[in-house]
Amino acid sequence: MPQPPLSPLIPIPNFLTGFTTCTSLNDKRIQILTLDDQSLGVHRISHSTTHNTTIPPPPQSLSPSSSNIPPPNVAWEAYYPKGSINPTAPIPGGFSFYLSGPPFFSEALEGAKEVVMSYRMMLAEEWDWVKGGKLPGVFGGVGGSAYGCTGGRKEQRCQCFDLRLMWRPKSVGELYTYLPPTPRNAHQLSRVPPLSKENSDYGYSVGRGSFHLDRAVGRWMSVAFRVKLNDVGEENGEITLYIDGSPVISIDRLSLRTSDEGKIMGMHFQTFFGGHAGDWASSKDQRAWFADVTGVIVE
């Protein structure tokens, strides 16, 4: 009988080693860490916003996947003031930084071909979705070119990839991707149901409507990304997004790198309302919480 997954945070049966800030994940392959910048290799922080460590409010209900994971007792708080959009706007909101994990993990990423990286999140009660916004994900590429892959960048696009969640009106969820602009990648992304489309900033909205984020309002929801790099010269990379332990988007036959220098670098831990225009702005002061940051090397 196949071994069941350890947790919605690690929704696969087998992996080599990893880390987590979830104290209820007991496995000899996993190092349990505290939720702080130094332990998790946080860097390139947007200093116009904060990601304070706090005791989150108690959830209003439990998600079906949380039966074996109690609510976290510490979390990073994202604050989205009324009128805020992205962290660099006149009224900044959310937060933005990169996360490589503890030293043993970031060193293992140098040779890793497949990883799972995950977290849990909770949105405040009476959340207003407005037009949409971004949530944390995974990034990679070649050295410094891996950073800043988003937001309409045209240069060195074959040397980076970035995968984040996005919400749309009425809690509709999607995967917002920046991948090397190859014909095969465009084809594979565009065919993911129920709706996928290229955006004006060179990113792709993938699988819009394949999940909803209202399940995170007032309760903890698990988000996990499985990323498998392609062999150089081949189009055999893979991405799977899991929500509360269930796969909701799966994409194969991708090219995430064009040379052996292309690596999985860690997490792009970013969240904000937007878009870049004012009509995306938060309609009121709002908060969200992020916890149980986890990463494992699969291969």
TrEMBL record:
Which superkingdom heads the taxonomic lineage of this protein's source?
Eukaryota
Q: Which residue spans adopt a coiled-coil conformation according to this UniProt entry?
A: none
Disordered: annotated segments: 48-68
* Pfam families named in the record: Polysacc_lyase_14
Key words, A-Z: Lyase
> One GO molecular-function annotation for this sequence?
lyase activity
Q: What positions does the domain Polysaccharide lyase occupy?
A: 76-293
From the Swiss-Prot or TrEMBL record, give the protein name.
Polysaccharide lyase family 14 protein
Q: Which organism is it from?
A: Laccaria amethystina LaAM-08-1
